[in-house]
Specification:
It is a single chain. The chain has three domains: about 45 residues, 434 Repressor (Amino-terminal Domain) (Orthogonal Bundle); about 100 residues, Response regulator (Rossmann fold); about 130 residues, Response regulator (Rossmann fold), CATH 3.40.50.2300. Helices cover about 45% and strands about 15% of the residues. It contains twelve helices and twelve strands.
Length: about 325
Amino acid sequence: MKKKSVTSHDVAEFAGVSQSAVSRCFSPNASISEKTREKVLEAAKKLGYRPNSIARSLITRSSRIIAAVASQMDNPFYSLVIDQASRRLQKEGYHLLLFLVEDKGEPEGVMSEILQSQADGILMLTASLTSSFAEECVARSIPVVMINRIVDFAGVSQVSSDNYHGGYWVGSFLASSGHERIAFIAGILNSSTSEYRRKGFIDALAAHGQQCWAMEHGDYLFERAKEAARRLFAKPPYPDAVFAANDHMAIAVIETVRSELGLRVPDDVSVVGFDDTPIAAWPSFQLTTVRQPLDSMVAEATGLLLRQIQEGHITAMQVTLPVVPIIRKSARRIV
């Protein structure tokens, strides 16, 4: 025989409080005295009561779920974003539901699953957002916030770092340091982050009377960045500096030129990345890079999303946060 489920009414009766007090005890940020909370939790423990989040969502019409859409989880930057976003949202009584998509794949199937999940809001960490899906989210009053991506869709909020000026600093730094054959390894083709970094980089080189010596695509992936490095160094003259559009690819370049080509970093070639993930500071890499304000980006994005959910009104906003150059030992000054 199936054991009868313990209800909130049972807990209220056992604790000697009202049923609404039990509800408030298990509702994030609800007002309840510490004495009452202790009585309810003790009663719930003795009775083996577990609140039914599905039932509560039917009453409140809120799932307390945030859908996170991501790709390339092997990229440390996005793993850190997911970790921090999840922690921040949990403190507010929300839970992150992760959906993985291919950056170059067709996202429509996953988008349908997101809508079926009844998520209260969506965090996008990928460029795979179609205008039709954005319009459907707006029509359903589901807030969408993109992190580190920029799209031209009405109703979609965006939080990113200043990728253009980050790329500009790299180009200026390498050119003014005496490098003459400066190559670039781009991220995903047509992604806003890679394109802004590339444009800033190219503009800075032009300001110093230079052009990009060679360009390859690494799609932000480690193995593809290694392949890109092999192409750049297939025959002399080699680049004397490489700017990779993220740290993940920059580390791949360092590993490739050291282990496969026997070149020294930075003596033979300087390498610069973008993001400042924890591995960039490791003693074996000491990567010169551009730091994205990850903490601030996540705080802005989650705060913006929660405000729109709680207010029940979508107001698209674009937030651009400053970046910080981090000079370590992977790039040298020739002059």
